[in-house]
Amino acid sequence: MTDYVFAPPALPSVAVAGEARRFPVRRVFCVGRNYAAHAREMGKDPTREPPFFFMKPADAVVPAEGTLPYPPGTRDLHHEVELVAALHRGGRDVPAEKALDLVFGYAVGIDLTRRDLQEEAKRMSRPWDWSKGFDASAPCGPVRPVAAVGHPAAGRIWLAVNGAVRQDGDLSELIWPVADVIAAISRSMELKPGDLVFTGTPAGVGTLQPGDRVTAGVAGVGEIALTIGPA
Hints:
This protein has helices spanning about 35-40, 95-100, 115-125, 130, 145-150, 180-185, and strands at about 15, 20-25, 30, 55, 60-65, 65-70, 75-80, 80-85, 105-110, 115, 140, 145, 155-160, 165-170, 195-200, 205-210, 215-220, 220-230. It has one domain (about 15-230): Fumarylacetoacetase-like, C-terminal domain (Fumarylacetoacetate hydrolase, domain 2). The mean pLDDT is about 95. The longest helix is centred in the middle third of the chain and has 9 residues, at about 115-125. The protein has six helices and 18 strands. The chain is globular, with a radius of gyration of 17 Å. Helices cover about 15% and strands about 35% of the residues. One of its GO terms (molecular function) is hydrolase activity. This is Fumarylacetoacetate hydrolase family protein. Keywords: Hydrolase, Metal-binding.
């Protein structure tokens, strides 16, 4: 038996819809600006350039329910609703036509972003980590297995704050479909079971305030609801 200096932390995991077992989380990959309208609102050209990625710590994944803490160090917390692919198989240099074989299921997630810190990092040519990888920055709903939902390629993806819809797009608007995103990641590092892939957000990202009620969903995958706690 391995002897540790202190007890290892609990393995991060996500609920599996309708089951007692949970999906263990190994890593969290996020693809940036994968909807053309969102790229435009961020001041970028939405042409089909190669996808780019950032990562979040596995323990940034928390249930998308209840009250989430408003993070310190920011005055501009933003919401970004995303379709999340949960992988139960791995691989390196996976061709796009076989990439969906790696997917166990899909969930609704939110990429929370400290936008003011991100903009400062961009201005100073610094990494984004502090703006993206903070505690509880990746709330995620239950994973629905492919056997139940298939591989969603079209359908509404939306987010509302206090009942007012802010983000309202369609999965068919993805610049790089899920299979292409998975294939692209596998060309840079070997994917493993337990990896989550946040696939990008549609236009309409905006600021969240303490006390805001956030609801979101992806057609055929599910809906989530949570509240932003006090600063």
